[in-house]
Specification:
266 residues, Trna Endonuclease, Chain: A, domain 1, 3 domains, two-stranded antiparallel ribbon, elongated
């Protein structure tokens, strides 16, 4: 179970917003507390002199908390964008820690137009990791950064129970691998979307700026070194095969797209 994040009050609330919103709220609140309240208290007679210094202190505290929260929000946003823009293959998804994988998934959905709320109380072993809001619909998301096993039907049943309990509109389960046949069968007639690692990678690539994707002529291998395309299915699990390169020798070979969950080669 991941360590739970404590509620830091106003600053954490501002950090959950986009940083320009936090800055705007800080400035508006400062002006209201510093200037608006004293002007209103001027009509209160002798009480005005008593509360005026306190309003000044509160105004600066409000502004400071909002600006700090906006700074945290800006840093988090920058980290999420850099995290998404540097994912290039399934191996890079599998190498991402569970917390960063949740942030990565959230950023991918943000770029699809969703408003995303991160559940900081969730851990790596289950629960609702993200809340998505779009077109008046609320979607629950669970992220499974599992490297060596398929997501089973128990996880899908748990999320369906949470969907009913929270009266949500839909559920998305995102994994770096794949799902069992029982899990797919259970989700088939329900508002549950099972997102595999390959689908997640495609979503990330679609969300990346054009400059993050190498030009086509750079990605293509010379004809003399291209591998034959006869091996289309993994001999171990039947998944699609993709071209890889040995890190030490640079030699090309066909490997399972579910690596490292499956290490089939051809």
């Amino acid at each position: 179970m991941g360590r739970r994040r404590r509620n830091n009050g106003l600053m954490e609330a501002m950090a959950a917003l986009r940083w320009p919103v936090g800055v705007a709220l800080g400035i508006v609140g400062f002006l209201v507390i510093r200037l608006g309240f004293p002007a209103w208290l001027d009509n209160a007679g002798p009480l005005a002199g008593m509360f005026s210094p306190l309003m000044g202190v509160l105004a600066f505290l409000w502004l400071g908390a909002c600006l700090l929260g906006a700074l945290v929000s800006a840093i988090r946003s920058s980290n999420r964008k850099r995290l998404l823009d540097t994912r290039t293959d399934l191996e890079s998804l599998s190498a991402t820690g569970w917390r960063n994988f949740e942030r990565l998934v959230g950023e991918a959905f943000r770029r699809q137009g969703y408003a995303v709320e991160e559940n900081h109380h969730a851990g790596p072993d289950g629960g609702i990791d993200l809340l998505l809001f779009k077109d008046g619909c609320r979607t629950l998301v669970q992220c499974k950064q599992w490297r060596r096993e398929q997501v089973g039907v128990a996880v899908v049943r748990e999320m369906y129970g949470l969907l009913v309990h929270h009266d949500a509109d839909a559920v998305k389960i995102v994994t770096t691998g794949s799902y069992t046949q029982a899990a797919a069968a259970f989700a088939a007639d329900k508002p549950i979307e099972l997102v595999t690692g390959e689908q997640m990678l495609a979503m990330i690539r679609a969300a990346q700026p054009a400059s993050a994707t190498p030009p086509a002529n750079v990605m293509q291998e010379p004809a003399s070194t291209a591998l034959p395309h006869a091996a289309e299915a993994c001999p171990r699990c039947g998944a699609a095969m993709v071209e890889r390169r040995n890190r030490r020798t640079g030699a090309a070979f066909m490997g399972c797209s579910r690596f490292p969950a499956c290490r089939g080669t051809a």
